[in-house]
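Appendix C. Worked example: LysR family transcriptional regulator
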Amino acid sequence: MNPDTLTDQLELFLDVLETGSFSAAARRHPLTPSAVARRIDALERAMGSSLFSRTTHAVRVTPAGLAFAERARRILAELHLARAEAVSLSSAPEGMIRIDAPSPFGRRHLAPAIAEFLRANPGLDVQLRLIDSFIDLQGEHLGEVDIVVRIGPLPDSRLVATPLASMTRIVCASPDYLRRRGIPRSPLELEQHDGLDWDSLAPPYAWRFEVDGKLQQCKPKRLRQTSNNAETLLFSALAGLGVAHLPTWMSSEHLQRGELIPLFCEQGLPPIEPVSIYALRLEREASPRTRLLLSFLKQRFGFPPPWDQALQASLAIPQQ
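Step 2, the predicted output written as structure tokens:
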């Protein structure tokens, strides 16, 4: 059996498993339902086992089919990876890569990285869409685009997530604000300060600190400004309006220049969050050029990412 036939049969088998119907699976391929049934029959004969039980009303997977599905997914992943590696070694990659990403992260970090990637790969093109809507970053456009960059908890376990960089959040305020209001020495003192916060769905680890060995939420009682956009909170922090709890990928350069002062960082950067910055994709639509970009971005950002390395070095200098 040649690799293309094997790939087609395994993908067809997984489509029947997912849809529960020969007709629905046929719509994903240039096949008729009867042709799908014949190919599944051929696969079952080759396996020597029944993978589906059929009735006039439904197609149900058998225990043997469920067990085979796990191996089929791994085999397909390895075939795709082997093919991508072979292509990358035998010829220069060509084609378009389409990406959706959050606007603030895209402007600061992704756009410069992609420019470097394109210089190194003259046969490739990139369409980068910077998205402000949180909903658009759930992976709903996958299929229309190759990669969705996502910051925070993963939206859907069916998607393949590649971690690109760790995520750290830091409490900070402008020097002017701290001169006027004083420097909080503990997260418990934050309630006495003015805050800048999310007005709707806050990030899951915002304003959470370990106090007396327990993870607690400590935040300012008065909120001078709320917003659904972290970049807005950054601008207000720079203007001296209050204390913010910002991701380091957004605030690092301002902290290094002294435009914002880090709080509670006597021992260095706070712990990284359990969530990361991810690239989401649909496994079956991963192309060699997409894999090449993912590998580049992982090396470009990494753990710890460059913005955290630079910030950690600056924190070694005693604060005034």
